[in-house]
Design brief:
With 102 residues, this protein is an all-beta fold. It has one domain. Helices cover 0% and strands 45% of the residues. Strands 1, 2, 3, 4, 5, 6 and 7 form a 7-stranded antiparallel beta sheet that branches. The radius of gyration is 18 Å and the shape is elongated.
């Protein structure tokens, strides 16, 4: 598993553009995913073979080498193809959970 990746972390996956499906959708190939994936891209400068970074949150850790990332839909890929962008930091509590006795 990629070092330091946990549930809730924001990660990036580098995908390769395959073709433009419509004016605002592009078909991309995600490494180790094995399924076709389409994303919304309203720019017209995207060309076939260009690399795009898809950013999402880790929702599930499978084996030691597979993670599920939410890219609008859950995508399960090898942990080696994801790159950590921001680690998840749980919210901190400002007041104690229990009130002070009176």
């Amino acid at each position: 598993m990629a070092k330091g990746i946990n549930i809730g972390d924001e990660v990036a996956i580098t995908a390769t553009v395959q073709r433009r499906v419509t004016d605002d959708h592009v078909s991309v190939s995600i490494p180790s995913y094995g399924q076709p994936h389409s994303i919304v891209d309203r720019t017209t400068e995207v060309t076939k073979g260009q690399h795009i970074e898809l950013i999402g949150n880790v929702t599930h850790l499978l084996d030691k080498n597979r993670v599920t990332v939410n890219l609008g839909v859950p995508v399960t890929v090898d942990a080696a193809v994801v790159r950590l962008v921001n680690a998840y930091k749980p919210p901190t509590r400002k007041k104690p959970l229990v009130d002070k006795p009176t």
